[in-house]
Amino acid sequence: MTLKLKLIAAALLALAPTAALADADCTAEPKEKWMSEAAMKAKIDALGYKVKTFQVSGSCYEIYGWTKEGKRAEVYFNPVSGEIVKSEIE
């Protein structure tokens, strides 16, 4: 294996865990069954998150912001139940 191929392989392996964190599978339910964005935002607020960005990401509601303790947070929510599916807190 050439040096160039080794470097490419190493770069791809380094990126693999990041790509896996980016996707969450939150629900298979159709969007008609999702809670409204306003209701989800109210639930997130009640959980104590300060939201910088709120968005639909695949089959999830996703936020970027801070926990009530002030730690940075990326959180994926099931849009039907409002439960946290995946979170990354720094």
SSE inventory with pairings:
Elements: H1 3-22, H2 37-46, E1 50-57, E2 60-66, E3 72-77, E4 84-89
Describe the structure.
- Helix content is 33%, strand content 30%.
- With 90 residues, the chain is of the alpha+beta class.
- It has one domain (24-89): Nuclear Transport Factor 2, Chain: A (Roll), CATH 3.10.450.40.
- The chain has a 4-stranded antiparallel sheet with strand order 1-2-3-4, covered by helices on one side.
- Strand 2 (60-66) and strand 3 form a beta hairpin.
- The relative contact order is 0.18.
- The model is unreliable at 16-21 (pLDDT under 50).
- This is PepSY domain-containing protein.
- Pfam families: PepSY_2.
- Residues 7-88 form the PepSY domain.
- Keywords: Signal.
- It comes from Methylobrevis pamukkalensis.
- Name the shape in a single word: flat
Number of helices: 2
Give me the count of strands: 4
* Range of strand content: 25-35%
| Tally of individual domains | 1
Sequence stretches where pLDDT stays below 50 over 5 or more residues: 16-21
CATH architecture: Roll
Rg, Cα atoms, Å: 17 Å
Overall structural class, as computed from helix and strand content, comes to alpha+beta
Give the proportion of residues in helices: 25-40%
CATH class: Alpha Beta
Spatial strand arrangement across the major sheet = 1-2-3-4
Question: Largest sheet at a glance?
Answer: 4 strands, antiparallel
CATH topology: Nuclear Transport Factor 2, Chain: A
Mean pLDDT: 86
Q: Ends: how far apart?
A: 37 Å
Please provide the ordered H/E string of secondary-structure elements. Answer: HHEEEE
